[in-house]
Predict the structure.
Amino acid sequence: MPTRKYRPGKIVCVGRNYREHAKELGNEVPKEPLIFLKPPSSVVWENDPIKLPGASSKVEHEGEIGVVVGKTLTWVSELDAARGIRGIIAVNDVTARDLQKTDGQWTRAKGFDTFCPLGEESSKLPDLDSLSVVTRVNGVERQRGKSSEMVFSIPSLLAYISRIMTLEPGDLVATGTPAGVGPLNPGDVVEVEIPGVSRVTNPVQESR
Ligand code: ZN
């Protein structure tokens, strides 16, 4: 089946939403969701190469559960947020870890072209409480997490974001990555899968 090339509006990401991942990078779990943006120009799809920028010597995978917004959401309750979801999609929030540390602001570390591979969007809405996400590099499992392990649930994230910025149909929310982030090297193949829902596989290449 051909992949539907979904191009999001804005991409709102959530940092440190799994306890074990916050710990592995030496961070506390935040009291409120920690959010940042990725530019829509960073999106690529199935089989498109992830290009490692010369500015970084440590690019890492972050497999995540992506939520595609289907309704305009402003100051919504968690219940209305859940009703406003259109689909679920596999996301790789590729990150230049060294630049994330040195820059302070994460725009460059998260924003390079090809740094947001997206799978196909689910045709039906699965049960939000029983999703899992698995990341493999060259077929070896590196990350595994469940939506039930999130610090902030999917509906609470959307409700929180909707009190800051209106979420519009076609926007994407990446809900954070579980423990096990690690490096991507030229020649690797990285896969993020939400079993039974969505999957994206990408080769990794040197850039300029
Ligand atoms: Zn992330």
Observations:
- The radius of gyration is 16 Å.
